[in-house]
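Box 3.1 A note on notation
Throughout this textbook, protein chains are presented in two layers. The first layer is the amino acid sequence; the second is a token string describing backbone geometry. Keep the layers aligned when reading.
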Amino acid sequence: MQTLILLLPQLILFLAALVVFGLDLVGRDEKRWLPYVALGGTIVALGVTIYLIVAVELPTEPMLGGTVALDSFAFFFQIVATLVAALVIISSLGYMQERTPYRAEFYGLLLLASLSITLVAAAADLIMIYVAFELLSITSYVLTGYLREDLKSNEAAIKYFLYGAMASAAMLYGMSLLYGATASTNLSAIAGTLLGADASLRWLVFPTMVLLMVGFGFKIAAVPFHQWSPDAYEGAPTPVTAFLSVGPKAAGFAVLVRLVLTALPEFRADWVALLSAISMITMTLGNLVAISQRNIKRMLAYSSIAHAGYILIGLVSWDLWQSESAFNGINGVLIYLLAYLFTNLGAFAVVIAFEQATGSNQIEDYAGLMQRSPALAGTMLIFLFSLTGIPGTGGFIGKLFVFGAAIQVQFYALAVVAIVNSVIAAFYYLNVLRYMFFQPASEGAPTLELSPALMAALAVTCGLTLVIGLYAQPFLQLAQFSVGLLGI
């Protein structure tokens, strides 16, 4: 019974998906109310997750044969997954209605993708990690190519699938090497076997980490596993792009943190060196290439790549002996992901609204947006400031805690590279603002009207982006509480 209670959020998401699929089969009417069934499922799952965190004592050991760790870390990502699904559903209501008559499957698949994120974050076994990852991958591929009549959507899905298949194969091979070296798929048991292991086992670990990083790096869009990201972001339906920019990235960081801290603490020096190099290359390439982009979805794709590099700083700066510190690295990863969730989904809500009204995603077409829609221009200003890391926004708090963690453990070179990259990023973010506020609109450009659903999405994301920046204490407490991982 305790297991079922603790798994209620996952069960609710799964049942909500089944209900959406089932109701779509009944009758022939258009069923415009089905998205609200999916939205209700995510809100109920979010409420139950918060209740379990507050009112139920979390287990001290992994459950279901050691495959699932329902600790505070896993519950944090359950909150993230349900928030992502709810906000994407709200943002997509008008967009999907205009583009396809087959909408129920979209919302059902979105619920399954959200479910897979919660399973990835709680996975304490290599087999569970792989199965949950594949569920997330398959649903993401289908969602990316959901607009079957759109050639760009088809192209994006094919590229995403091909890259994903190769990354998945490399990750699975790395898992097989780890199993061969330790005779276990349980993360804690792997750590126990590798503790004090002789050279005949230790030499396998570094190539294993590289192969595992191919799979995890693909999900978080870290260089050099990022090639799918710009094409998938541009070609996918924009609500799906919003989901891809946050959901799989959060899942990738969740499993990466759990694996290296639980299974490979003995090899901290190795994975710190590997991830530090990837972090610096990722943020630098993402920001430099973003400067030349003219399509806002591609620009935000490279921006997302750069932010993956920033978030990695928190992981490589983790120090077990400073786990109670305000800058312990992992709490920086969590607060950064939370701020990035609201910031990026808000930015994509603006992109969705603009695309619905104009049919364009070109940055120059945003000229004069302040006169055409002050609400869109004002909220986009806040989101771009947050992505830049301007004080008073959630993005600043996220960067403060990951950069502060790097400085605390004396990774000064990493911190300097990150700060320089933040300055570079300001160039292309402010370029969008230049068009919106200082360039005249083209002759005959219409005034943009916002649907109630998009107004709600913008209000929630913009409000929470500012709240995290101006009153961060509750969110910092949540992040610090969520640092506890079973098995460390």
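The chain has a mean pLDDT of 88. The first helix runs from residue 2 to 6.
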